[in-house]
Amino acid sequence: MKKFMSIAMTSAMVMSLFAGCGNTAANGTADTTETATGTDTAAESTDASEETAASGGVFKIGGIGPTTGGAAVYGMAVQNAAQLAVDEINAAGGINGYQIEFKFEDDENDPEKSVNAYNTLKDWDMQMLMGTVTSGCCVAVVEKTSSDNMFQLTPSGSSVEAIQYDNAFRVCFSDPNQGMASAKYIGENGIGTKVAVIYDSSDIYSSGIYQKFVAEAANQPFEIVSAEAFTADSKTDFSVQLQKAKDSGADLVFLPIYYTEASLILSQAATMNYAPIFFGCDGLDGILDVENFDTSLAEGVMLLTPFAADAQDELTQKFVTSYKEKFGDTPNQFAADAYDAIYAIKAAAEKAGVTPDMDVSAICEAMKSSMTQITLDGLTGVGMTWDASGEPNKEPKAVKIENGAYIAM
Q1: CA distances from residue 332 to 77, 78, 208, 306, 316 in whole angstroms, order as listed
Q2: Model confidence over 167-204: pLDDT tens digits?
Q3: Torsion of CA 151, 211, 78, 329, to 10 degrees
Q4: CB atoms < 10 A from the CB of 65, how many?
Q5: In terms of residue numbers, what domain contains 287?
Q6: Is 330 helix (H, G, I), strand (E, B) or coil?
Q7: What backbone phi and psi angles, to 5 degrees, belong to 217?
Q8: What CATH number is attached to the domain comprising 352?
Q9: Beta strands 168-170 and 194-200: pairing type?
Q10: What are phi and psi of 332, to 5 degrees?
């Protein structure tokens, strides 16, 4: 099992969350530990493209996530943003001069179907996996990629077990780190004094965040006055959990859950005339897109998420503009994770010098090493690095919903 890095999250970090973004390269290209200019890289890619035109070699990168079902907003965002990044990279000369072929398979947020999707991509001769999108599916699939020694980079699989093997890395923070960071943010910024928690005990994402949140809360100047669980079989009626939170005097309700259930909780809280501060993690990203949900109920909701489409740095604005033009929608945090994932794969592959004629295991061995040597200025963090645990090193960020939009705090 891997060791996981704790996040040193301070108020100063969060207050300066986009301070360094203005220097981010407009095309999302990463620097490596070796000094190289963008001009040199472009020239090398152009030369390599000419050399490989005759060979016809391409890198086959697969993706897996839900494009149908209840979590489809996550999977569609990942699929779209990854394709956008692939198109940009191909237009700029590819990876080491080789073009990328990208194929994405729907898993409906079902672990068994995710494994089936992986096998389908293997039959397609996939060489690297950008996925999966959700934690439960990632845990199932990482068993397969480890056995096959295939390089895997998940944009958003945040559970501890999602990258438990040395072939797997992630772009997002792990569940424990999200729980710790949330507790620190609430405590250090004095957002609430009496905190209630509503979480899904049947979901590894939710329960993982909850456990670390409770552990860190002991070090913070607030009290957990209520902690109530629900399960996948009881996630439509939250009246009991909300009543206990209200009766306990909670002025903040922490929701380490997904956006669909969160929208129901906010709607039901409104009918009870209960209006605490609601605070969540990246699973709440997407709540403004829930069908038939009154988005005014989400006004003031806070969440830890590494991306805000309203940020004014050059890379974010370029990405948002391109995404809207191509897909007619505003990208969310999952899209940003996926965009960074593809560029991280590019940077690591170029650092390792891998080529499409190498077998899957040889590519994986080279990428395992090179991932720990790159530095990426991306949408979800400036100066992102990875170590052998597969965890990213970057400062956490927070946003608040104001006037129907995510605004950086």
Answers
A1: 7, 9, 22, 10, 11
A2: 999 999 898 889 999 999 999 999 999 999 999 999 98
A3: -170
A4: 34
A5: 176-305
A6: coil
A7: -60, -30
A8: 3.40.50.2300
A9: unpaired
A10: -105, -175
